[in-house]
Design a protein that fits this description.
mainly alpha, disordered C terminus, about 350 residues
Length: about 350
């Protein structure tokens, strides 16, 4: 075999190895797409993000804190101001008034008694959500602020297919396989870095880990029950307790409202704002409830390894391109005299 044939055989072998590497990188991306269930994770992630986005806005967090402050004030004001004042007006001791409230208006008594537990629980939830806002905003931008997360599995899937196609063409002589391989390697690396997919994926994983201890069916059930207790308290206080007390105190509805506003301003404010407050909290609890299944889909998935797999696939593809291109270039510049058989000298015997 001539030296040129040996050199060409070496180049072909190296090119075939590079082609196998590129095909393998594409297969790994396809496997990652399906083993991580990304065609299910993507839509569920996007639906959950869409539902929670309004709840984690800065103004929503501020409103929730204000609502909880009012409810906390109602519990304090009831015990320290309403009970002493009304029991005196009705010629009762504080214990007698509490017994009267429990027997005649059990929803009010249950609600007031539960507020010291309910308010800290919801405050803890709001604090957790507030502390995750930066991570949420970063995860919300996967892959970009304008593209939904549902595009990610398609991106990985088609990137994997494209690498396989490029690898197949790399098996053949010519520049097309080299061009496809080099272009895909550079394109994958640029997309991963320019879109900041590596830090975004890490933030999504941190968000997932931080939500896992609190995002449970038990939390949703507890929150639903708490809202029911507060709603029943407000309804019975407004519709039954206050009219009955007004009648016993000899006050008209207008006089009673003035009396409440002057002496118990926090409770008076709460009675006016409670329907809106409950509506906002109901929206939050509903978002948690309706996305439990979505979170169960997302919870076992780690996004960082997926993005690192994509990035490494780009690096491997670019390295395969570089090696194949180098050896092809080297073959082109080998000295012709070393690639052809020696010719007989002039004048020598054939």
């Amino acid at each position: 075999m001539s030296a040129r044939s040996e050199a060409q055989g070496t180049v072909s072998s190296i090119r075939r190895i590079a082609a196998v590497v590129v095909v393998a990188a594409g297969v790994v991306l396809l496997i990652s797409t399906f083993t991580n269930n990304l065609f299910k994770v993507g839509p569920d992630f996007e639906e959950m993000i869409d539902d929670f986005r309004p709840m984690l806005a800065e103004e929503s967090i501020a409103s929730a804190r204000a609502d909880l402050a009012v409810l906390d004030g109602v519990g304090t004001e009831f015990q320290t101001a309403i009970v002493p004042a009304l029991s005196q007006q009705l010629d009762m001791t504080a214990e007698e008034f509490m017994g009267f409230t429990a027997s005649s208006f059990p929803d009010v008594a249950a609600g007031v008694g539960a507020l010291p537990e309910i308010v800290p629980t919801f405050n803890g939830l709001i604090d957790t959500l507030d502390s995750q806002r930066d991570l949420f905003d970063s995860a919300d931008a996967i892959p970009t602020e304008s593209l939904p997360a549902t595009t990610v599995p398609f991106g990985l899937f088609f990137a994997g297919l494209a690498l396989i196609v490029a690898g197949v063409f790399l098996f053949r002589p010519g520049n097309l396989g080299l061009a496809l391989t080099g272009g895909l390697g550079v394109g994958i690396l640029i997309a991963t870095l320019v879109l900041s997919l590596i830090p975004k994926a890490a933030d999504a994983d941190d968000l997932n880990a931080n939500l896992e201890p609190i995002y449970t069916p038990e939390l949703v059930t507890q929150a639903k029950g708490a809202l029911g207790v507060i709603g029943a308290m407000g309804t019975q206080m407004q519709g039954e307790m206050l009219p009955a007390l007004g009648q016993q105190l000899g006050m008209t509805g207008e006089q009673l409202n003035g009396f409440l506003g002057e002496n118990f301003p926090t409770t008076a404010q709460a009675l006016q704002t409670l329907p809106d407050s409950l509506g906002r909290f109901q929206g939050l609890v509903t978002a948690f409830d309706e996305n439990l299944d979505n979170y169960d889909t997302i919870k076992p998935v780690a996004f960082s390894p997926i993005i690192w797999t994509l990035f490494i696939a780009g690096l491997v593809t670019l390295a395969a391109f570089a090696v194949a291109a180098f050896w092809r270039s080297k073959d082109s510049f080998v000295t012709p005299g070393r690639l052809t058989p020696d010719k007989p000298k002039v004048g020598s015997n054939a």
